[in-house]
Design brief:
29% strand; 269 residues; alpha+beta; eight-stranded mixed β-sheet; five-stranded mixed β-sheet
Length: 269
């Protein structure tokens, strides 16, 4: 059973991150408030703020998966991905201008987003289950952001901070999975015609479907299993890019089309 000290640390960490999000001012890392390397305590922090957000009227619309790259896992000393919650007010339309004052220190990633047409609530979800449950897939941009100052994060910090979630954009060319080979799909982020990040589906746990299987199994043990209608950002296909104000970024995934993130000029430190 968690001790009162553990509970106090979880509550303090959750409040620190909540205040940083609502003020849009970065905070100190939270890892010192929790037992060293305790990822489950970090998820408890995330859960506190998820419930607080839902009670305040925000709408849960899906999940994001992070740390799908073996290189990033090694960097943070973990052997599995992590996840965060997507809320409806985090969604940005393709080409809609993004006001950078909404964010602290954003970066972007190109991903494959899965839109579910059926629930995935079983702890033993299989690849076949994910294939049957997926209504469509689209190219996505995740705008990642950290409430922790200067991205001074370890695994505990990022999990507690809703997996460093910011915003997300979905492309407008949905495709069914039949006939797609997502493992071999190339991905690129361009700005001004120049490639800034290049990757492939295999960078996401070997195949983006594998990431969704992992997430479905993990969430089956929580209060919020994956449900029909959920959007799942399956993980980065290439390196993360730091955002520059006034720049238009276009992400492409072969076979899935593109999506554009347009960042406003002159409104970010």
């Amino acid at each position: 059973m968690p001790s009162s000290t553990d509970d106090d640390g979880i509550a303090e960490a959750a409040q620190r991150l909540w205040d940083a999000r609502t003020s849009n001012l970065p905070c100190a890392p939270v890892r010192s408030l929790l037992r060293g390397g305790d990822i489950e305590a970090a998820y408890a922090v995330q859960e506190v703020n998820t419930r607080r957000a839902l009670s305040g009227g925000r709408r849960l619309v899906g999940r994001k998966i992070g740390l799908t790259s073996p290189a990033v896992q090694k960097q943070l000393g973990v052997g599995q991905p992590d996840f965060g919650v997507l809320f409806g007010d985090m969604a940005v339309c393709d080409g809609e201008e993004i006001d950078l004052t909404r964010l602290i220190d954003p970066r972007i990633e190109v991903e494959v987003a899965f839109v579910l047409g059926a629930d995935l609530s079983d702890e033993w979800t299989t690849t076949a289950d994910v294939l049957r449950a997926t209504a469509c897939v689209v190219t996505a941009i995740e705008v990642v952001d950290s409430r922790v100052a200067a991205w001074d994060i370890g695994i505990v910090d990022t999990v507690a901070d809703n997996a460093s979630s910011g915003l997300f954009l979905l492309g407008g060319s949905p495709r069914r999975l039949e006939g797609l080979e997502l493992r071999e799909s190339g991905a690129v982020i361009l700005a001004g015609g120049e490639p800034l990040s290049v990757g492939a589906g295999a960078a996401c746990l070997g195949h983006p479907v594998n990431a969704v299987v992992w997430l479905a199994r993990r969430l089956a043990r929580t209060a919020y299993p994956l449900s029909a209608g959920d959007v799942v950002l399956s993980g980065a296909l290439g390196p993360m890019i730091r955002v520059t104000a006034g720049t238009v970024y276009e992400a492409h995934v072969s076979g899935l089309g593109s999506v554009r993130a347009v960042f406003a000029k002159g409104n970010h430190p």
